[in-house]
Amino acid sequence: MSISAERLRQLWRTLGSVRLALFLFLILVLGCIVGTLVPQDLSEREVMARYGPTTARWLLAFQINDLYHSLGFQALLVALSVNLIACTLQRLPKTRALLRERGDFLDPAKLTKYSLHRVLDVPADFTMVRHASETVLGSAFGRLQHLHAPADALALVAEKGRWSRYMVYVVHMSVLWIFFGALMGSLFGFKGIMNVAEGETTQEVFVPKQRAMITLPFALRCDDFDVSFYENGMPKEFRSDVTVLEGDTPVLNASVRVNDPITYRGITFYQASYGALLKRARVAFTKADGGERFELDLPFGEAQPFGATDRTVQLVDFTDDFSGFGPALAIATWKENEQPSGTWILMNHPDFHGNQLQGYRVTVLASERGYYTGLQVKRDPGVPVVLSGFVVLIVGLLSTFYVSHRKLYLWAQRNNPGTTLVVAAWTNKKSLAFEREFQHLCDRLADTLQRRTQGK
Q1: Could you give the angle at the alpha carbon of 418 between the alpha carbons of 416 and 421, nearest 5°?
Q2: What is the pTM of this model?
């Protein structure tokens, strides 16, 4: 064999080794601990502010702030999957060969070497022994297999729990299935933000990690937003009543609350934040010298003619609290071939000297306000895969540890007079419990033969 072939064989053995599996699982556990201690989904600015520039540089370089979507975490899952596949492929043929090896003959001398065996000398006729053995053993073990034996002998073998030998490979496959689901979520999932004003509809989600907008395959409309407050002014509860639209057709009406999200087509919406917005304002503009005065009804974000001038005016921003002075709106004005100019107007302080724009004193006469709801939008296509994998994993583990492979042998030899029986058995686990079951089975067989002999 060439050196390269030997190296490939050694590599193959290493890939399927338990030592490699333990090493990779240790790295996975350490990674999960780090991912628990370090808050996830922080932006670069938040990481810098929390940990300082030196530590943040390392955290960002190794993607610790988004560990479960990092290339290193994905590579670790792939490595563990390769290890499990190699381990399964190396050991499965040995298990299959072991289970196929049943044998066609029984040696009664070898049966007496089993740790679980019993020799019974009964006066019953051989024909009666045959019938009683098939009845008693069949009721306990199910289907019996007849092996080759002389005319004056009987050889039986029965098995239970043979399939449990394969459960360890079911565990392997379930772990692979879980890893596959985790990779699906890491590669194809997203977590973003959607801000929707009352009465508005949107399909756009901003994903900070990708710094991009994602368009959902359906639209979400915020029908109503309601917030209640404690006496100290802190928000007590906020709720968004939303409608999911397929095209123009409503398909789902629901309320999104904190810790009570909704899910549609695999995409989950969480109530994350809210904010105040300005829908429109009635604004008066008065010349600083007390001359010209006019009023405008300004819808938010819509440009309007600036009175009788050649300029245009627009509400461009709003805040519910401007540096502790209460609500304020930002107004900008411009004309063709000129850069816009603007200022913040304090709505509750009409006499504030800064409430001026292009030589006009600005006064907010009335306003119509509303709220927007801030929804966290999350899609993880791997969740149902991971959940189903855990269900199979639990079934596989329970079967592996609590279901044993048991095998029973019986040899009956005609004597003159009576019959000699040799009963033997083995199990791969739970030997003490099976020993009691074996002794009880032998007692049943002896009692059945005794009663039938006396009845005859």
Answers
A1: 115
A2: 0.66
